[in-house]
User: What shape does this take?
Amino acid sequence: MKVSDHGKSWLLRGARIVDPSRPREETLDILIENGRIAHIGRKPAGTRINGLQILELDGLIVTPGLIDMHVHLREPGFEYKETIATGSAAAAAGGFTAVACMPNTDPVNDSRSVTEFILRKAEEADLVHVYPVAAITARSQGKTLAEYWDLKEAGSVALSDDGKPVMDSAVMRRALEYAHSLGLPVLSHCEDLSLSAAGAIHEGLAATELGLPGIPGIAEEIMVARDLLLAEYTGAAIHICHVSSAGSVRLIREAKSRGVRVTAETAPHYFTLTVDSLRGYDVNAKVNPPLREERDVEAIREGLRDGTIDAIASDHAPHAVTDKEVEFEYAAGGMIGLETSLALSLRLVADGLLSLKELIAKMSSRPAAILGVPGGRLAPGEPADLTVIDLTRPWKVTGPELRSRSKNTPFLGWQLTGKAVLTMKGGRATYSDLPGTNSDRLAGKHTRRS
Assistant: This one.
């Protein structure tokens, strides 16, 4: 459900601005006119603008709009799990103004027509910017390259066979070379199927005790190593998706130290949960790559701290009840994450691992830079894509409150702290949870007219 604009001009007053592109954090006002930031500073006394909507945001944080560079919106083909409209609503509620959606739909996004369909549906929803990620290979079968130029021209911003690895090294080499010539980033799902096939959870003590087939960390790490070597050999850039293991962090860190053009992301569940979360056979905690051990969690946290891991992405993967409530080995892998990503990531700040500015960089400016899309900073003349965050807001994760069509998350019932309370895309409020407001109307003590 869209939030009313109440006019085209806004004045956001009293919030602390946390912007990775600014040298310091300050309490300033932001004037928005015609969908763009007109001024950041102090509104001169006596200034009046007809129709100006003033929001008093004392004690809150304003950041560039958050960008999730790895989500699954499921449409076309799997609308019973999620649609672009419901996924966009979940994104806006999570504080995101932009998402990049993976191509494992039905049909796979390997053609101009599918890319254009996604963009058309996103425009109809008009809640967040949706950036399609096209397939590396036709039908994501890992054999022949998709038509990259056509896909880029249609509006795809990156390439990935996410959900499936490109097993053939020669195909991956050609993909890197072709994509590099077009300036398209390649987002790699690193998994050696010969090592992970039929696995259900991380290989180790928990898998043995539960009687479940395991997936070793080297199933990820071998492919990370291969793709780093291919990137080094071709001179092309590579982005490693959903890093889950200590070995992957070490390989990426070493590659960066010798100048390989590599970036990497991880998801909140990989620095929050371990394989022990599966001891109760919770299918909502079954993901791919799997949750791993405490040492992996600690390595990922350190990788975030020292910059080895550039971005945090939710890997939002909605599944219906029918996909999950089956025998554990046959349950679909993946969890939703758009609405919990920010609060879980804010724990890194509370733990002193990252500063707030460093966290926002990993959830805004770095994803924008990796994908080559707008966003990630607040400046006059820029589109007014921004997020207002209440760092102290307590809230409980409950199914009825989640806007995603699917509810597959192991965080149901968790008490979290920190929440996006206002999301703006192009100067229009697409989500509001400010005190005294609802999702249809911005009113009450936090809002008044000039």
